[in-house]
Each structure stands twice: as structure tokens, then as C-alpha cells.
């Protein structure tokens, strides 16, 4: 029930609950393909992760990303997501 609290989502990797705006959304776009959804409004099935490479790696390793997105991630897609993630970390406000 508490999951329904407005704006709160839990990270697919570490399960930590945070405000939606603190998390990074990854979506499978309707055209196919996986990408980071910085705006949080892209259409398609999405999964939330902390903006930390550790959580991304954990999610990839455990398969929770592909499970949540109902689609396997190719090595290229994983690599692309990882690159975008690193970009997020280094980008200062
Ligand atoms: Zn996390």
C-alpha cells in the first residue's frame, strides 16, 4: 500500500524507496529498444533505478531489468544504458 504513496518508487536493484525524481527511469520504447528516460514521461514500460552505476550493474546482473521490462537486453543495449548512466554521474548540476 505504501508503494502507492505519491511519487515514491523503489529501485529495481536495491529496493530502496525514493522519490520518483531521485530515480532514473529506464523504458522500453514502443518501437523497441531500451533507453534512459530522463524526463520520466516517456511512453512505454519503465523501471526505476537509483542513478548509481552500482544499482544498474546489480539490476543487469540479477536480470531484474529484463524481467521488469519484459524484454531481454542485448549486450549493445546494456552498454548504451551504462554509458548514459556514467554521463549522469559526471554531469554536475
Ligand atoms: Zn538502487
Write a concise synopsis of the structure shown:
With 93 residues, the chain is α+β, with helices and mostly antiparallel strands. It has helices at 53-62, 64-69, 75-90, and strands at 8-10, 17-19, 24-28, 34-37, 45-49.
Provide a descriptive summary of the structure in words.
There is one protein chain. With 93 residues, the chain is α+β, with helices and mostly antiparallel strands. The protein has a single domain (2-90), classed as YlxR-like (Hypothetical Cytosolic Protein, Chain: A, 2-Layer Sandwich). It is 34% helix and 22% strand. It has helices spanning 53-62, 64-69, 75-90; strands at residues 8-10, 17-19, 24-28, 34-37, 45-49. A hairpin with a 5-residue loop joins β3 and β4. α1 (53-62) packs antiparallel against α3 (75-90). It is globular, with a radius of gyration of 12 Å. Zinc ion binds next to loops. Zinc ion (ZN) is lined by residues 11, 13-14, 16, 49-50, 55.
